[in-house]
Design goal:
about 300 residues; four-stranded antiparallel sheet; 10 helices
Length: about 300
């Protein structure tokens, strides 16, 4: 028996028992049909953590993208890609040497500046990918140039997360699976069907150095940071409280703790704790990051 999980636009994850026993699920997405399996890279993100202070790795990612697109390589259709620099100088110097376009051609479009995927704000996966992962309990993976990789941190449906340099993030987006040896196995095939290996698209240190020399100027930093504290017009129009003590305004982000209501400057007597109860009880792989205002805990209906 084969069942389909329908989604928008006729895109589906097909439940084929014989495939599922092999740890695979057939997926139809954006006009393509493929098998999603254990080790599939479903998120590849160049994040802000390593970007602001190291143009070498970003230039290398751009050069890898350039060589990949020239060879006709594409990121796998199940990989969600994103690029979130830590500084607005980054796209400026990449554009100076024509590296922004090849990154975008592989799906690494700029989605914002600052923390995104690294703090769990990668956004939802496409519905067919989510259905496939859940239906076969696939061990999906992410690759990011960040600094957090414990289970469930990047996305609730992604169990294994790997930290890598930006050019390697691009390479794994092309490979689409963590089960291959990128040093020995091809990442894909070129327009003529010839295998393309990591060594074929990896820039030399001289290429990186020469590109940085052509891309970087002190004027870029002077222009971008000249009014960095001014902010946008919307930011400038925000009212600024003059209170010496935080007034705890109504907020959906940070709420006033109730124990502040009865708190005094005088230390109270230490008394026995009575009537204590559990405030929060969570399952595996939930951390303080998930319960922070920026985090999210996925709510699922209990099975059965």
């Amino acid at each position: 028996m084969i069942a389909s999980f329908a989604s928008e636009g006729g895109q589906t994850a097909v439940d084929n028992p014989s495939l599922r026993e092999q740890g695979k699920v057939e997926v139809e997405y954006k006009g393509e049909t493929f098998n999603l399996e254990h080790g599939a890279v479903v998120i590849a993100a160049i994040t802000s953590c390593t970007n602001t202070s190291n143009p070498a790795v970003l230039v290398a990612a751009g050069l890898v993208s350039t060589k990949s697109t020239r060879a006709g390589l594409k990121t796998k259709p199940w990989v969600k890609t994103s690029f979130a620099p830590g500084s607005q100088v980054v796209p400026a110097y990449l554009e100076n040497v024509g590296l922004l376009e090849p990154l975008a051609a592989l799906g690494f479009n700029i989605v914002g500046f600052g923390c995104t995927t690294c703090i769990g704000n990668s956004g939802p996966l496409p519905e067919p990918i989510t259905e496939a992962i859940r239906s076969a309990d696939l061990l999906a993976t992410s690759v990011l140039s960040g600094n957090r990789n414990f289970e469930g941190r990047i996305h609730q449906d992604v169990k294994a997360n790997y930290l890598a340099s930006p050019p390697l993030v691009v390479a794994y987006a092309l490979a689409g699976n963590m089960n291959i040896d990128v040093l020995k196995e091809p990442l894909g095939k070129d327009q003529h069907g010839k295998p393309v290996y990591l060594n074929d698209i990896w820039p030399t240190p001289k290429e990186v150095a020469d590109t940085i020399q052509a891309a970087m100027t002190d004027r870029l930093y002077q222009d971008k940071y000249a009014d960095v504290f001014a902010g946008t017009e919307a930011w400038q129009q925000l009212p600024v409280p003059q209170d010496e003590i935080y007034s705890w305004p109504e907020s959906t982000y940070v709420k006033k703790p109730t124990y502040f209501d009865s708190m005094t400057m005088a230390l109270p007597e230490i008394e026995p704790i009575k009537g204590a109860r559990c405030v929060v009880k969570v399952g595996d792989s939930i951390t303080t990051d998930h319960i922070s205002p920026a985090g999210a805990i996925e709510a699922r209906q209990p099975s059965g």
